[in-house]
Amino acid sequence: MQDVPSGPPLTDEQVALLAQRYGPAHRKPVGVLIAVGVVVAALLAWLVWAGLLAATPDVRWEVTGYSDVTDRSIQITFTVTKQVHDTAICTVQARDEQNNEVGRADVPVSDALTNVEVRYTLKVIAKPTTVDVLNCVIAK
């Protein structure tokens, strides 16, 4: 690669002439850059905090099966993982072939264990085709 010749340095008169013709050389707004950097750092810190908070919920659940499906009820089995002595409230929902809700209940899960297996018989108004745990929260 070939070097580009730069020539002799500019004199004060030439610098003044260039400034008169093209305006003064612009300085970078250091204060604005610092402020933007602080705001970006704060947003990134909040994003990391929120992500870690959402990644470690107080309660988790997993449906392990269902059985005894009739026109009046369905039995669901699910496992709840929570802190010892916490009480969780889990919302269970059953749906029919057309995806209509045919049953719903809030099931309290209070036990001295961390992993609790729950068997719950949900009453329904029509024969369900599926049942699921919609949500579990720690009771306050």
How would the blueprint of this fold be written?
Elements: H1 12-22, H2 30-55, E1 60-67, E2 73-81, E3 87-95, E4 101-110, E5 115-123, E6 130-138
Antiparallel strand pairs: 1-2, 2-5, 3-4, 3-6
Keywords:
three-stranded antiparallel sheet, 26% helix, 2 helices, alpha+beta, 140 residues, rod-shaped
Total strands: 6
User: What general outline do the C-alpha atoms trace?
Assistant: rod-shaped
Span from first to last CA? 71 Å
* Main sheet record: 3 strands, antiparallel
Radius of gyration: 33 Å
Please count the helical segments: 2
Mean pLDDT score: 89
Arrangement of strands in the largest sheet: 1-2-5
Helix content: 25-40%
The secondary structure category is alpha+beta
Which stretches are low in confidence, meaning pLDDT under 50 for 5 or more residues running? none
Strand proportion, as a percent range, falls in 35-45%
SSE order in H/E notation? HHEEEEEE
